[in-house]
């Protein structure tokens, strides 16, 4: 996944691009992304998740890689490690 510094870079880049956009739970259920959050996965590895509220007690979430792909945005990998030009 990502270092904390890389995850923070992803939050900085994607926040304005994904907040207010839809997470598609199914063909009929769509929820607006409300916020992004960094979560530690294991021993210094982090990921960024996008959260939407499905109800007062239910959150829907997707990782930033999936959301970026669904919205046609640059992938987190390309953002962190841009291709080198020869």
Q: Any overview of this molecule?
A:
By secondary structure, the protein is of the alpha+beta class. The protein has a single domain, classed as Thrombin, subunit H. The protein is built from 3 helices and 5 strands. It has a 3-stranded antiparallel beta sheet. A two-stranded antiparallel ribbon has the order 1-2. The radius of gyration is 14 Å and the shape is globular.
Summarize the structure.
With 86 residues, the chain is of the alpha+beta class. 31% of the residues lie in helices and 36% in strands. The protein has a single domain (4-80), classed as Thrombin, subunit H.
Q: Look at the structure and give the CATH class.
A: Mainly Beta
By DSSP, the count of extended strands is 5
Q: Over the alpha carbons, how many angstroms does the gyration radius reach?
A: 14 Å
Q: How big a fraction of the residues is strand?
A: 35-45%
Low-confidence stretches: none
Strand order of the largest sheet: 3-4-5
CATH fold description? Thrombin, subunit H
Distance linking N and C termini: 27 Å
Judged by helices, strands and strand pairing, the structural class is alpha+beta
Specify the biggest β-sheet: 3 strands, antiparallel
Query: H/E element string?
Result: HEEEEEHH
- Average pLDDT over all residues: 91
Q: How helix-rich are the residues, as a percent range? A: 25-40%
- Assign the CATH architecture: Beta Barrel
Distinct helical segment count = 3
